[in-house]
Fold this sequence. Notes:
Blueprint: E1 3-5, H1 11-22, E2 27-28, H2 35-40, E3 41-42, E4 44-45, H3 51-65, H4 68-74, E5 76-79, E6 83-87, E7 92-96, E8 101-104, E9 109-112, E10 115-120, E11 127-129, E12 132-136, E13 139-143, E14 150-154, E15 159-161, E16 164-167, E17 169-178, H5 183-203, H6 208-224
Antiparallel strand pairs: 1-14, 2-4, 3-7, 4-6, 5-17, 6-17, 7-15, 8-9, 10-14, 10-17, 11-16, 12-13, 12-15
The structure holds nickel (II) ion.
Nickel (II) ion (NI) binds near residues 96, 98 and 159.
Amino acid sequence: xxxxxxxxxxxxxxxxxxxxxxxxxxxxxxxxxxxxxxxxxxxxxxxxxxxxxxxxxxxxxxxxxxxxxxxxxxxxxxxxxxxxxxxxxxxxxxxxxxxxxxxxxxxxxxxxxxxxxxxxxxxxxxxxxxxxxxxxxxxxxxxxxxxxxxxxxxxxxxxxxxxxxxxxxxxxxxxxxxxxxxxxxxxxxxxxxxxxxxxxxxxxxxxxxxxxxxxxxxxxxxxxxxx
Length: 227
Ligand code: NI
């Protein structure tokens, strides 16, 4: 399942982050690519272990962990330190699957990548092309979101970024290991949670059936969670 979350960062935060990124020095994006990905990847990245990427990444992770929709959709166990990329004219990232396991030498963190996340940091009007295309069970989906919005998609899916033909596409991207390994199970839990949250304003959190559904929500997590 592909889930888009709006307004994870507000426009002022995006502008501040963009200002810091624009002033930084960038490197070839192939520094973090696997062998197959490196053949099809043409973009630039902030040095992953650089002070700026670490600082901005920590800020994004802390914002996301305070976002109830993100937590509900991802049920994160471990979040890989966010990376930052940009695609200028002619840059693209051909079709690939992300590495199944990611290790961070700086912290020793090692995760199974269940979900891939792209947080858009450029407005769609700033560039042409640069769509994220994700292949799924029901065909391919095209994603190009306003700055400050993010998309979560299965890290197991084939995906690509189409060539940028004008302007610059700027984004943060990262992976996470979810407490719920199965995408189907995670999707059921997310749908149940969003349905409960939609009923609460009318029924109240202490309504008997809401209490029962909330119990089912927690018990499904208890059944499937790896912590
Ligand atoms: Ni990828």
